[in-house]
Amino acid sequence: MAEVKIVEVGLRDGLQNEPAMLSAELKRELISRLAEAGVKHLEVTSFVHPKWIPQLSDADLVASNLPDLPVTYRALVPNRQGLERALKTGVDEYAVFMSASDTHNRKNINKSMKETLPVLKEVVDLAHQEGKRIRGYVSTVFGCPYEGEVPVKTVAWLCEHLLQMGVYEISLGDTIGVAAPQEVKQKLNELLTVLPASRLAGHFHDTRGTGLANAYVCLEAGVHTLDTSFGGLGGCPYAPGAAGNLATEDLVYMLERSGVKTGIDLNRLCETSLYVQKHLNKPLPSKFLKSYAAERKKQKEGQ
Hints:
Layout: E1 5-8, H1 10-14, H2 24-36, E2 41-46, H3 59-63, E3 72-76, H4 80-86, E4 93-99, H5 102-109, H6 113-129, E5 134-139, H7 152-165, E6 169-174, H8 181-191, E7 200-204, H9 211-221, E8 225-228, H10 248-257, H11 266-280, H12 287-302
Parallel strand pairs: 1-8, 2-3, 3-4, 4-5, 5-6, 6-7, 7-8
């Protein structure tokens, strides 16, 4: 298997779905811990209006005080106003987002898909003028909580528009965690007839326990960039109590066990996740993390 790029999104996509509010100081400490564990691509916050995501209302403070580490820092920006805020910080690159279903897009952004594209183009153009790269997120690729099945042709049309406007990579999101491996394989096969695998990434939620299998299907199809969240941080607003993003620990374990070097120290990563568990007052869903914690407890009891 070729080299795999892991994009850690727990500090943004994970924390925005957690009811607990972590301090900017703690987030900075988590950034340092993740970097020390070997994480190279970190999405640290989102410059949306604070009233929409209060958990990330400290975006300006967090992004203005990033540790000087060999890490690519990214932040989500919804529009020109968000980008202008982000440009005043130390973030290296940005990401724009929209859905592949009109209903979800209107619920999320208050615009249709066609109305959203010019807004994103303005962001991309301005970012490029400032010498910054832009990534794209497409949500509800494998299913919408309002419309159900999302046609592959719609996803392809949207991705082509995003690539034409200048995003360097598109993350395909299983927003509500409904995808199964065979479905992922079929949709990717169709998408890859018109889109290059090198410009795509997989973003899976483990809501129904298929996240890791879906990620493996992505790798087999030639899509070698995957988004994950340390500890499996996060959740799905449409499935209360369900597991959130695919856990970084689970993916790293599978890859390393398969002979793929990730450069990530699993022990350090797990210690970081156990550390944040204490501040969230809840166990995180990563399966590898649970086994690590059990073994750690057993060793301590044997001392």
